[in-house]
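EI: anyone free to look at a 406-residue chain?
SC: sure, send it
EI:
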Amino acid sequence: MYVKVACVGGGPAGLYLSILVKRQDPAAEVTVYERNPEGSTYGWGVTYWRGLLDKLREHDPASARAVEEHSVRWRDGVAHVGDMTARHRGDEGFGIGRHRLLELLAARARELGVRLEFGREITAADLPLDADLVVAGDGLHSALRGAGADHHGTRVTAGRNRYIWLGTTRVFDAFTFAFVKTEHGWIWCYGYGYGPEGSTCVVECAPETWTGLGLDRADDAEGLTLLEKLFAHVLDGHPLMGRPTADGRSQWLTFQTLTNQHWYRDNVVLLGDAAHTTHYSIGAGTTLALEDAIALATALRGHAELPRALAAYQDERKAALLSLQSAARYSAQWYENLPRYIDLPPHRMFALLGQRHSPLLPYVPPQLYYGLDKVAGQVKVLRQFKRWLGPKLARSAHTRTSPGGD
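SC: here you go
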């Protein structure tokens, strides 16, 4: 096993990897370095599904129990389109506050003997020289990855729409979508509970709607007031809460899709958002980060030589991410092309919202796709044809848009 492991970044991926490494080899010296003070984090809540919980139970039952106990769950999805509402029963989903998740993982890591150093920023210039393995789990803007960007083959693609992460004291009992038409175009939000204290509320719109509503010029208070008015019917009198920047402006972003050709260099390996990002609309960011940690720990256990372990980890995760990265691209494009779907009857629009990751959908008129999908669900041969054709279209589209690969 590897005697000294340094995890740079105290997010879910770095903390969970430290737990797994210490469980595999209690004698290993594992340190997690986090640049922010303990207890400070961004974001509100994160989502995950039953499949992840099953994996957490398999690899560390103690932390899995703690995470499940502090999570909320839902099965319904609700879509509000103007004055109309559609509800759909789906798979069981879970939400947990990001602050609480990090608190639970940090406590478990300490219990196992992991050393946690908060308020400690590690850059490429001051890497721990005695570490056998350095794990770069320092996020989308990873300083460690940035020092070797040419080697890693880093590629970042910006999405078209504007979005902002907000919180609200309204506790949604279902995964909630709300689409509101304005004179400048549509604006919508995704809301999901993460605990008795509140919910995450992500607001998104096209750039022309963003500027038309004046959200590009509004300060934090003005922007929140406007959004509270637009989504009053789903907030039910509850406020929205943001994270103002130093200049008082709300933190509107465009999503950055990041890929890397090579995930490691010498004894430094990328993990979580430092290695890859997938559009937030598929709700997989935290799940993928924790699955990265599981795959890396498994590779370290299975290979005595570090280069072989890191190569095995990279190959496994890149292969596992292909379908999800495709789903995320098509999901983001669905929202970027919202006018194509928004005028459908609400139950049909909601059905296609659930199919937004499909590579077939952009090539088939929405009404026709809805009818074909409904028939395909009842006819085995059509289900098989859909599963066969979808990946072929996805690969074809990926080849046209991604000359460098992932």
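EI: DSSP finds 14 helices and 16 strands in the chain.
SC: 👍
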